[in-house]
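Long-time lurker. I teach an intro course on protein structure, and each term I like to show students one example going from raw sequence to a predicted 3D structure in token notation. This year I'd like something fresh instead of my usual example. Would anyone be willing to generate the tokens for the chain below so I can use it in lecture? Attribution to the forum is fine with me.
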Amino acid sequence: LISCVHNLKNIKVLENTFCIDLIVKDNHCLGAYMFTAKEGLFSVLADKVILTTGGVCQVYRETTNHAVATGDGIAMVYRAGGQLQDMEFIQFHPTALYVAGTSRLLISESVRGEGGVLRNKYGKKFMLKYHPSGDLAPRDIVSRAIIKEMKLTDSPNVYLDVKSIPYHKVRKRFPNLVNICEKVGLNVGKNLVPVRPSAHYTIGGVKVDLKGRTSINNLFACGEVASSGVHGANRLASNSLLEGLVFGYRTGKEAGQTLGKKRKIKESIYIKNHPSQLPFNLDLEDIKNSLRSYMTRDVGIERKEDKLKEVKDKIKFWMDYVLAKEFSSPKGWELQNMLTVSSLIVKSALIRKESRGGHYRLDYPKRNDKIWQKHIILQKEKVKYEK
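-- Reply from a regular --
Happy to contribute to a lecture. Here you go:
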């Protein structure tokens, strides 16, 4: 796909470019403000804009996502006055490799489907205590079960045991798992594999219809940045790949069909930036790490009102001075976006006083269809609900 894009003469690719904000006037998207280290800040005007910026899972300390998944597109739409939907629903994958210094490699359910079993630090199987399907229970149930076992055994992880599966079969079916484990000194045929849940998929996001249209005219979104509603409250494995194919096609088709007959795009306008000064230096990395720790601990797999409110207050404290500063590099803009989307996840999680799919409240552990079988829509300070 990348090769195809590069070969098309009517597509101009801007690499190593950061999108800072959308240009929106009277609820019409006119383009975006961009940044490159070489050219600085500039704007690109466009008849139609399609966001495919991914999810928000980098706001969590443990995540399978790439480092760029900082919620930039969602934060931009929120600042522009667009509607967001289902921000409380974050899917955690129950089994990500947990070895210090390595990325959180996702270990597919299919490993357990082939016979792999979860064990606590004492070597005991535990999943049948939590669900009749045992190790093959739904992701959210397995994730919560692992968290409970970690607490009960005072351990940072549990273990995946694949020793009952013939080694040649594991190597053939899951070569990436075998290779990564070997690099950190683990032989999956002899050793237990340390795993723990990690933030994996953003179910909520920019509210779109079945053609990828957002609440802002001329602005479209598809992929993980968008919330089309097709995943409900708990995405099924691999369905996002199909969503990307279907909605990528539908969104591109709709945007192309509705282009104006006359080309209205002007030349890029270069603008100067004047970073504001604070009376102290911000340690961006320290704030980011603290944010990710708070989000993982209190806005992750298990949530509770008092803890959510604590995180809400902490995020507001950081936002008061981080958002007040005008940065001149992606590192600062990403932190602003991470704080923004984190505050929105917390806001929606506080509102939804029930448990459903990827949102589990310890103080409201039951599903309540009578009151909460509806979407939470955020738009600036407004909150509304849709069936």
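Some talking points for your students: The domain at 284-367 is CATH 1.20.58.100 (Methane Monooxygenase Hydroxylase; Chain G, domain 1). The chain has eleven helices and 15 strands.
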